[in-house]
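INPUT
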Amino acid sequence: MDLSYQEKSILGSLLAMVVVYGYYFAAVLRDAGRPEFDGGSLTRLILAVIAIIVIEIVYHIVLALESKPEPKDERDILIECKAYRNAYFLLATGAFLVIACVIMATLAREAAPTRIIVTPFITVNLVLLFMVLAELMKFLTQLFYYRQGLR
Amino acid sequence: MTKGRIRNNVRRLRFDRSEMTQQELAEKVGVTRQTVIAIEQDKYSPSLEVAFRIARVFGVPLEEVFQYGAPDAEAA
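OUTPUT
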């Protein structure tokens, strides 16, 4: 399969995100029972962000050495715009859901004693989850349009 | 509104111009080779500016490079 420089760049970023944040959220799910956003979880989040940055830098250096970098042209920018639109809708939906989740949990707790609580740990990770999903949506939309075409 | 189809003769015109490569055309027009490939495969309709630049590279009028097939005309 003949992939352009842009496609290789997107594919690398997509895989890096899936691996790093897949590992991160798997670890978060293991800790889901904990009520508070503790220091260990914060360290893991920082490590995940650093890992993504390092992987991206190394990958793009290797990619630049292996294939000649091409500047974005009008088609690349148009595809990126469409990808950002899809990512925006997903992120906006996620933000709405997180807000609704926090409000409903607060109302439920005020109405009657309940075990439903939304801790800062859960809120931060829900926001992060939707940010990651929005980014994945952007990459997948770009790859789709590069393969499918813009008709 | 039903979309029409824009067809092009870029591939034929390239071969008519002493088999100009996709890379050469891309460099002259100022786009990537992948975009030239997408245009030739009817997977991308370029902007008006790029369309004019392609026509200028081949030295022909725009209509000779790109043709618009209106939906009504195709149905008839």
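end of record. Residues 74-111 of chain A form the longest helix (38 residues).
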